[in-house]
Specification:
mainly alpha; 1 helix
Amino acid sequence: MMESIAGMAMGMSAASFATNYSLAVTKKMMDSQELAGQELMKMLEAVPTPAKGDFIDVYA
């Protein structure tokens, strides 16, 4: 009986650790993606927009 309780406690501890680890990795990935998105927005703001009528699509 005690072995099964100890085994179940170890299993629950391992599952809790795996969940916490997975959440930490996901949060780190989301933070880095947010930073990449912010940098991309900065890059896009730096690109000058062409004035209307400057470019003609001859392949349409």
